[in-house]
Amino acid sequence: MLNEERYFDSNPAVRKIAKELYDKVKNLPIVSPHGHVDPKLFAQNKPFPDPTELFIIPDHYIYRMLYSQGYSLEELGIPTIDGSPVENDGRKIWQIFADNFYLYSGTPTGAWLTQEFEEVFGIDEKLNGKNAQKVYDQMLEKLQSPEFLPRTLFEKFNIEVLSTTDAASDNLEYHKQIKDSGWTGNIIPTFRPDAVVNILADNWKEEIQKLSSVENVDISDYKTFVKVIESRREYFKKMGAVATDQGVLSPYTHKLSESEADAIFQRALKGMATGDDEKKFIGNMLMEMARMSSEDGLVMQIHPGVLRNHNEEIFKKFGLDKGGDIPIQTEYTYNMHELLNAFGNHPNFKVIVFTLDETTYARELAPLAGHYPAMKLGPAWWFNDSIQGMRRFREMTTETAGFYNTVGFNDDTRAFLSIPARHDLARRVDCNFLARQVSEHIIDIEDAHNISYQLANGLVKKAYNL
Questions:
Q1: Residue 216, number of CB atoms within 10 A of its CB
Q2: Residue 180: which pLDDT band, with cuts at 50, 70 and 90?
Q3: Which of 4, 289, 311, 404 has the smallest C-beta neighbourhood within 10 Å, fewest atoms?
Q4: Which CATH class is domain 48-147?
Q5: 348, 234, 254: which is closest to 294 by C-alpha?
Q6: Tell me: the pLDDT tens digits for 366-411?
Q7: DSSP E strands: which ranges in 230-356?
């Protein structure tokens, strides 16, 4: 099913150069500095469940497409918040998926799945309604074998580093188990404080209580809150973390006085905070996180521009991360002005900025990253993590920011088995972009080889201090 020259240019001259570049980088170790794979997977090292539990139920990339075509999430076995019944026959759910596999044609999900099926499972035919159960049985047999245990696949996939994403209050129990087991796989945590920073979230007080409990401190004011955040960062760093991450609606940044921040914190504790309070508090905490990064060296990541849970009916019934998050228009030049003026020239500070608003690539992000030494551009992310999305990213940022103010690729996935396919796609697209530049005499072949290595392996290590 897989053409060896997939994603390369149809022009034979460009395709030849792209293949030459790709052949040099295709087997480089995978560095995954940002993602959402559960560390419990590697701590327990138990066999994966059946194909439905592995591919469909945990992956909103897959079931959001089926939902858009009229299938209910109940039919697809997605658990409800209140425990009301959903389909629990994995074979029935898999049959729906197989019957509709054609829906993923032309999408990155389709590309990743096709590569996973063939290269990981050895499936040599396209999935469809007729062969659904046969393919299911082939996969199930493999999933029950020792060769498909998580740690074994981690080594087979040639993963050098895998970062997880962990709440501020997480005691990192599974990371400890991995380290204590003696296994040499490098799984590291990432500090994500969203749950204790988003003061209007329904469970914010509960998250503050968790944070208080894990640090054995009563967090009753803003000053204590900041000290606890600093302490948690220190703990994460001792456990191997190299970065923090914040998902925000807007990259607005502004430093509040301690008294202003505490007044908002107190209103939040009383359930009286407003939308304006939350915007100011998050903007202030971005400034605080930048200040902390300049002191402890953890790389700061900012993921802005998603309106979470746009489909309120689905959110109320099924909860977070069910495919209803939608990108919004985002502004960076004004919003990040205060943060970059305070820390953008700091020698010990690094901030990696992502976007879902492609209109900002050339207008704002590339010029900012092309000037401030602390700022680098994260790769095409989420909805833009696709063949055309990656091409547009390179086309719109390279002339102003260059290649070396970007940070390579990260897969940002919960789907562990998709990691090799995602990185392979990115390497192919980057090599094709470089091949076009060589064929148009913008860069020479020597530069292209050097850059292709950096995009696949070098830049990510430098950006994340790995």
A1: 6
A2: very high
A3: 4
A4: mainly alpha
A5: 348
A6: 999 999 999 999 999 999 999 999 999 999 999 999 999 999 999 9
A7: 243-248, 299-304, 306-307, 326-327, 351-353
275-321 pLDDT tens trace: 999 999 999 999 999 999 999 999 999 999 999 999 999 999 999 99
DSSP string, 222-244: HHHHHHHHHHHHHHHHHTT--EE
CB 172 within 8 A of CB 236: yes
Using one digit for the tens of pLDDT, what is the confidence trace for 121-164?
Answer: 999 999 999 999 999 999 999 999 999 999 999 999 999 999 99
- The C-alpha angle 79, 80, 85, rounded to 5 degrees, equals 80
Buried/exposed 408-428: b ≥16 CB within 10 Å, e otherwise: bbbbbbbbbbbbbbbbbbbbb
Per domain, the residue ranges of the chain are 12-47+148-463, 48-147
Q: Is 360 exposed, middle or buried (0-12, 13-18, 19+ CB in 10 A)?
A: buried
pTM above 0.85, yes or no: yes
Interatomic CA distance for residues 17 and 260, integer angstroms: 58
Using one digit for the tens of pLDDT, what is the confidence trace for 78-114? 999 999 999 999 999 999 999 999 999 999 999 999 9
Residue 163 burial (10 A CB sphere; 0-12, 13-18, 19+): buried
pLDDT at 1: 78
**CATH class name, domain 12-47+148-463:** alpha beta
d(CA 44, CA 177): 8
